[in-house]
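ingest -> fold -> write
write: protein_1
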Amino acid sequence: MASVTVSADLQITIPAAVGQSLGLSEGQRFQVVRYQDRIELIPIRPVRSLRGFLKGMETTLDRDTDRL
């Protein structure tokens, strides 16, 4: 497990191995969320990158008879 140190400016550096395994790149933006007693970084991705992520999803379903 990698560890990091907070700088005097409250900055951290993500270890290269972690960044590479997540496909992060220079300039990547994150939402920072405090969750209980930890900090979570959520990558902000462009909406366009979501195109097609539901491909192959089952879209047929049984409807209620009163909704037909």
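write: protein_2
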Amino acid sequence: MDLGLTGRTAFVAASSQGLGYACARSLAREGAAVTLNGRDEAKLAAAAAALEQEVPGARVRHVTADVTTAAGRARITSALPDVDVLVTNGAGPPPGRLEDWDEDALVGALRANAVPAVELMRAYVPGMRARRFGRIVNITSAMVKSPAPDMGLSTSARAALTAVSKSISKDVAADGVTVNNLLPERFDTPRQEFMARRLVAAEGIDRDEAFRRIASTVAAQRLGRPEEFGDACAFLCSAQAGYISGQNLQLDGGSYGGLL
């Protein structure tokens, strides 16, 4: 299937590794000119080089910038004034407990996991509306629908982004702009490595056992593959997905227990 992305421009935040990189790779395979982003110049340049090798003929740029800062976002929009596809992403706050979630922690989570996405939408949506085409995909978390006791900080910030994205989606739909959220859980990425090491430290088990326990919590009994996530992102960015907006797509191996 031709997703109609050839010649489109895409910016993928926090894409030097993990799910962000997977989205960039899938978009590049579909013919989009992709700009990668991250804070570490050497790591980002290596990711861009790897993507060019993985996808022969891919048009790849990179912008070193911290999306959680105004200066970083200004650097991005200066280097890339207009995009057709915007994929927002960022590392979530650490697990914790109620006693850890003071005002600074709450505000910090919003600044890291909600504000950057909204600010990038504010920068790019006007151009998308004028061109009558735009695709925005926010990488959030399954915790938005299925909060875990220790993930309240992440849930609160990402739920805030989910709410404002829904509002934006209704305003821009008539101009050919869609806004959707991807809600991952248990993918084989560096983030899951972090969670496994945390389990190793807490339970006194080895890494293999930690990953076995993590996989056992998924209905599919395995971790998700990054390429599965990336391809889902590419479809939501496609010409064919123009009638899908304001949605939250679970990518969790069938684990979500609810109906909606």
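write: annotation protein_2
The longest helix spans residues 152-172.
Residues 239 and 248 are 18 Å apart (CA to CA).
pipeline exit 0
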